[in-house]
Amino acid sequence: MLEFERSVPMARAIEMPSARFAIGDIVRHRLFDFRGVIFDVDPVFANSEEWYESIPEAIRPSKEQPFYHLFAENAESAYVAYVSQQNLIPDESDEPIDHPSIATMFDRIEDGRYQLRAEHRQ
After folding, report:
1. Shortest CA distance to 27 belongs to which of 78, 73, 58, 76?
2. φ, ψ at 72 (rounded to 5°)
3. Residues whose CB is less than 8 angstroms from the CB of residue 46 and which lie 6 or more positions away in sequence, other chains included
4. The model's pTM
5. Which of 20, 40, 53, 102 sees the fewest Cβ atoms within 10 Å?
6. 6 — phi, psi (to 5°)?
7. Is the Cβ–Cβ distance between 32 and 5 less than 8 Å?
8. What domains are there in the chain, each with its CATH number?
């Protein structure tokens, strides 16, 4: 064994929760009446502590799961939502999302998912 190998501690695998949804997926909130299209994913909670504490404790989700940024809509308005994985389910309606920002990120719906515009693909 090389001297270098003995002096470097073994790296430990970090468990990361895996995301169930991807950018472009259309989802619905499990508890509240809104739906949206995912435009970004955080592997774990990445919002402010103030935002997190504003959620009633009885329904406050764990921070150790993916959180999704949505172009969201309900019957009254369109807005941006930040939602934990445990509170999302696939939307089965086959209806498009009516949000003014969708055209800035996505081209069209194909096979039930919004397709990223070419300039946003890596």
Report:
1. 73
2. -110, 160
3. 67
4. 0.84
5. 53
6. -75, -30
7. no
8. 21-120 (2.30.30.390)
DSSP 8-state assignment for residue 101: T
Alpha helices in 1-122 (DSSP H): 3-7, 49-53, 102-105
pLDDT band at 122 (very low <50, low <70, confident <90, very high): confident
Give the residue carrying structure tokens 């940024």.
Answer: 69
- Candidates 45, 46, 42, 39; CA nearest to 72 is 39
Please check whether residue 98 is in contact with residue 31, taking contact to mean a CB–CB distance below 8 angstroms: no
Name residue 41's beta-bridge partners: 68
Q: Which two tokens stand for residue 27?
A: 């989802």
The per-residue pLDDT for range 17-47, each reduced to its tens digit, is 689 999 999 999 999 999 999 999 999 999 9
Residue type (1 letter), 47: N
**Tokens representing residue 83 in the block:** 């939602």
**Which residue in the block uniquely carries the two structure tokens 């739906």?**
35
Beta bridge partners of 22: none
Tokens of 23: 């950018």
